[in-house]
Amino acid sequence: MSNKMFDFDIETLGEAKISSPIRMSRNNGDGMADYVSDEDRILYSVQTHEEDGVRKPLLDDTMEEAGPREKIYFNPSHVHAAICTCGGICPGLNNVIRAVVRCFWYRYGVRRISGIQYGYLGLLENSSWPLIPLDPDVVDDIQEKGGTILGSARGGGKQVEEIVDSLERLNINILITIGGDGTLRGAYDIGEEIKRRGLKIAVVGVPKTIDNDLSFIDSSFGFDTAVASAVPSVRGAHVEAKNSINGIGLVKVMGRESGYIAAHTSLAQSDVNFCLIPESPFDLDGPNGLLEHVKRRILERGHAVILVAEGAGQEFAPPTGETDASGNIKYHDIGIFLKEKLKSYFKDEGIPTSIKYIDPSYIIRSAPANSYDSIYCARLGAHAVHAAMAGKTQCLVSRVNNQFVYLPIKQAVSKRSHVDIEGTLWRDVLENTRQPFSMKN
Ligand SMILES: Nc1ncnc2c1ncn2[C@@H]1O[C@H](COP(=O)(O)OP(=O)(O)OP(=O)(O)O)[C@@H](O)[C@H]1O
Ligand SMILES: O=P(O)(O)OC[C@H]1O[C@](O)(CO)[C@@H](O)[C@@H]1O
Ligand SMILES: [Mg+2]
After folding, report:
1. Which residues are noted in the entry as Mg(2+)-binding (predicted)?
2. Which site in 198, 245, 420, 436 is 20 to 30 Å from 58, CA atoms measured?
């Protein structure tokens, strides 16, 4: 009997019958890398569980290993591949684009590769942005720069019929979408419309989220760079706070629903005394509220550093009622709100303070990828191309348990990843900051 919890089966456009132009081996031990077969599977859970009094691995949920297949679906000379980047920018987008183009070009000999400008908007009927022809020369140095050479945008993704009309009109038969949960949902819907029309167009996603809030992925590309880029702001806030009388350094980082950047940055630069994330609601006032705890810290140590994720404390103000072009709710600026609260609280308490507020959000998001993310993006991009050439569709490339895998988009977007406040990451953050485990009265 199967105890499967997840559906990790990948859809394909049809049987892969064409021999891959990539020369690899079928045998272990001959000193040459082997093709990956669809039957090569990776265990999803590396934890053991108890069965009949014995600890056993969970063997039922397995994911398809990513990599070049011996047989591919598309004849490379018939391929017109397109790439688009959607949502907010993130370190590493250009690295992924570069890797995708180079893999199509050098490994498979694909010569028609187009960049779609400004995400799904570039595929709408009235788009005035032409396709950008891509080849290894065009993408040669792009990894040096932050952002994406294609531009990115929100909105347009729900107009799937128009998008598929454009794919048909432009003879695009592979679409690589690089983006977050919204982009992936859009990619899935585009795949459904393609199926409904009986077309043979592969849609493959490369998951992007600076907030690191996608499930079924160890950590998203650009996240390591984001944390590394947040560190100097915390360091600056700490120096400013220490050099002032009762100084308070307040830093805001991104993280709408998940506080991973804040949590990891607190560990990377352990000057943080209070790390505030959406997953761990807190009170401002009262004996166990944030303000009282900051006061205690100021009276004991003469300075304090607060790192807040943008989605934390949203309940302190009524919802803005505004959304962006993709339908995401616009948040209050918790950084500015906290700065004002701290100011008036300490004034009322008769304690002189100096509050320095730093918001490095867009500096972090626009940074070029560091070496760790550059390596990661190069590998993600190539793996996305191997999936598409093999005719896999409505899937994405991910790294789970340090292995590259293909996952169905539907399963991957079925839940978001949040910092588990009973888990080891948050436990380690609390040990480092020495803040109370709860600041609720
Ligand atoms: N539920 C959905 N179904 C189909 N398309 C969607 C959906 N949500 C968003 N999209 C489309 O996906 C694209 C990107 O969405 P969004 O702006 O939310 O960014 P994202 O991909 O979630 O990345 P991030 O929010 O991390 O920057 C937009 O073109 C949007 O129209
Ligand atoms: O300024 P924008 O484009 O609305 O994006 C802000 C949002 O984008 C994200 O960086 C995700 O891409 C969130 O962390 C943030 O809330
Ligand atoms: Mg989103």
Report:
1. 181
2. 420
Q: Which atom of ligand 1 is nearest to the CA of 256?
A: 25
Nearest to 120 by CA among 93, 75, 155, 149: 155
In this structure, what are the phi and psi dihedrals at residue 410, rounded to the nearest 5 degrees? -55, -45
> For 379-417, how does the pLDDT look when each residue is reduced to its tens digit (9 = 90+)?
999 999 999 999 999 999 999 999 999 999 999 999 999
d(CA 236, CA 363): 14
Q: How far apart are the first and last CA of the chain?
A: 48
> What is this structure's pTM?
0.97
pLDDT in tens, 157-203: 999 999 999 999 999 999 999 999 999 999 999 999 999 999 999 99
Q: Which domains does the chain have, with CATH numbers?
A: 63-219+369-400 (3.40.50.450), 223-366+421-433 (3.40.50.460)
Could you tell me if 149 and 319 are in contact, meaning their C-beta atoms sit under 8 angstroms apart? no
Ligand nearest to the CA of 207: 1
What is the ipTM, given to two decimal places? 0.97
